[in-house]
Every structure is written in structure tokens, then in C-alpha cells.
Amino acid sequence: MCERKALMPKNLAELVDILKLTRRGELFVGAPGNTYFQRTYGGQVLAQALMASYATVDDQRTAHSLHAYFLRAAKTSDSIDYSVENARDGGSFSVRRVVAQQDDGTSFIMAASFHKDESGLDHTEPQPTDVDPPEECPPITEVMDERFGVSPIWHEWDCLDVRFAGDSSTATTNENRGKPQAWMRVWVRTVDTLPDSAPARLHQAVLAYLSDMTLLSVSALPHEVAFMSTSLQAASLSHSMWFHRPCRVDRWLLYDMESPNAHASLGFSTGRLFQDGSLIASCAQEGLVRLVDGRQMLT
After folding, report:
1. Partners of 258 in the beta sheet?
2. In the beta sheet, which residues pair with residue 90?
3. Is there a catalytic annotation at residue 296?
4. Which residues pair with 69 in a beta bridge?
5. Per-residue pLDDT at 294 exceeds 80
6. For 66-94, how does the pLDDT look when each residue is reduced to its tens digit (9 = 90+)?
7. Annotated active-site residue in 44, 48, 168, 212
8. Paired residues of 89 in beta bridges
9. E strands of 18-153, at which residues?
10. Helix (H), strand (E) at residue 12
11. 63 close to 113: Cβ distance less than 8 angstroms
12. Architecture of 6-116+133-291 per CATH?
């Protein structure tokens, strides 16, 4: 059982505390989140697993990619044990395998690759310009209140400042022209500032944490069923992420998401995170989006 009970973080200090793992022999132990949902938030598991793997990697190497599978829901009542296997340490790259377990078995597996920084080819997809600045965009909690009714669920991620910058369901025909059938954009940053001494691994872990927040929901936008309704069972199944450039998560990031496909109760979404005009990270996620009758919302 967990020695310390973590709450869903309301500020950056609480988020950083959740990402501090306790060493127990060969295991790294992460606190669960006390949440309105029935399972621990997937982004938290992703971020904790990344921090566990970082604890076994040379300080000169930073993560450039990770690929994860959510095998079963992580219970909110118990701590999560992360075991890390050293798959390879090469001249420039290191690879780690991470397995997350609770009392009832394995809940999550991840492979992460780390790279020693070096010079080379450099280009980036430009940041979209047809988007309102964050100061002119409403908090996403206000948008959720309007769409689904006032609920404490929308405050699960109060450690983040998330501004809704539009999606395909409410955009005009002209705004949708040239865009995918299903898209969403949000601005996001932490509500507080990290010290300049904060390591790159912490910024990456927070980036992984926030990347899971809205991505799968985009796959429901072209359809009549609402993502947070009692008619849809949704859960992340796999999540991949590529870290292209350093960033600061306490400064505005544009999260540009789209869903090119939904079929056979599986939704697929991709996301791009931009800062200061450059592509910072890319994400891809597949999840369960199963139509059901009368299912209770996970509260």
C-alpha cells in the first residue's frame, strides 16, 4: 500500500511531488492520484514511468521517444511499483523498459529511448498562426461547464492552465476549411513557474503528464455522442511520444490535435506541441471509444 496519499495536483508543487518516486530496493514507487474517476490518470502513470527510467540513465542523456501500453486501470487506492530494465546503453543511446504493477498484476508497460545531445540537421514544422492567443481563449473548465454541466471533474487538472482555442465541432465552415475532419487546439502551461534550475527531465515528465489530457476526446468530435457522456466508454490503450526540442512547461504551449480515424470501437488521435514557433513534441494515442447504453460516467 502507498505510504503517502497524493491528491490530484492543484498547483505545480503538488504535481512535482507526485513525480517524486520513492526507491524501494530495485523498485520505484509512485503515489496514486485521489481522483473523481475510478482509475489513476494515465498521464500521471506515463510521467512517473518516465521519471523512474530517468533514475537509471546518465545525466547527459535525455528522452527522445517513449512507447507505452495501458494494460488495465491503475487503482487509485494503491501505490504503483515501477521496475526498470536496462535494455541497452550504447555510445549515444540508452533504452529502458518499464513495467508498472499493483497488487493485482501488471497495469502498464513502456519502452523509452534516451539520446546524448549532438548537432545535426535541423528543421521544424511551423506553428499554426490561425489561432487566437491564449489570453483571448476561455479556460477549458468554462467550456466543459457549458457543454456538459458544472462538475468538479473538470478541475482534475487545476495544476495546469488550459485555454480552449477551438475544435471542429463548433468551428464555422470557413474555420474548418483545410483542416482535418476532427481537430482540437488548446493552449496549456503549468499554473506556476518552475525554477530555472529544474532539469529537462522534469519538464519532459510534465509534458508527458499533460499530453494525455485531451488527446483521445478528439476522436469523438465528428459524432453525435459526447466524449464525457454516459453513452461512451473511453480509455487510453497506447500512447507514443517523441520529444524533439527542449521546452519550458511553465510557458505557453500550443497543443494541436486531430483524429484521422475511429473504427471498431477504437479511436486514434495525434498531437503536436509547439512553443515559440517550433515543434517541441509529437504524440499519438489509440484508445477505446465504445458505444454503450446507460453506462455511468466514471466519477
Report:
1. 183, 270
2. none
3. no
4. 109, 238
5. no
6. 999 999 988 887 899 999 999 999 999 99
7. 212
8. 94
9. 22-24, 27-30, 33-34, 61-70, 80-89, 93-102, 105-116
10. helix 12-18
11. yes
12. Beta Barrel (2.40)
How far is 233 from 262, CA to CA, in rounded Å? 14
Residue 277 buriedness (CB in 10 A; 0-12 / 13-18 / 19+): exposed
- Please give the pLDDT value at position 299: 31
Question: What is the rounded CA–CA span in Å between residue 237 and residue 123?
Answer: 31
Q: Could you please report the per-residue DSSP string of 96-111? A: EEEEEEETTEEEEEEE
pTM value is 0.92
Residue 256: count of CB within 10 angstroms of its CB: 21
Q: Are 251 and 194 in contact (CB under 8 A)?
A: no
* CB of 43 closer than 8 Å to CB of 211: yes
- Separation in Å, CA 145 to CA 138, 142, 212: 12, 5, 20
122: which residues sit within 8 A by CB, 6+ positions away? none
**Residue 286: CB partners within 8 Å, gap ≥ 6?**
237, 238, 266, 267, 268
* Residue from 53, 107, 236, 275 carrying the catalytic annotation: 236
The average confidence (pLDDT) of the chain is 90
pLDDT confidence of 3, banded at 50, 70, 90?
A: very low
Residues 95 and 269: their CA atoms lie apart, in Å, by 26
Give yes or no: 236 in active site. Answer: yes
Q: Which of 48, 204, 275, 285 is catalytic?
A: 285
Rounded distance between C-alpha atoms, residue 268 and residue 250, angstroms: 28
**104 assigned to active site:** no
Q: Which of 227, 146, 139, 145 is nearest to 188 (CA)?
A: 139
* Residue that is written with C-alpha cell 510534465 in the block: 206
Q: Which among 165, 245, 155 has a CA at the least distance from the CA of 200?
A: 245
Give the residue extent of every domain in the chain: 6-116+133-291
Q: How far apart are CA 266 and CA 287, in angstroms?
A: 6
What percentage of the chain has pLDDT greater than the value 70?
Answer: 94
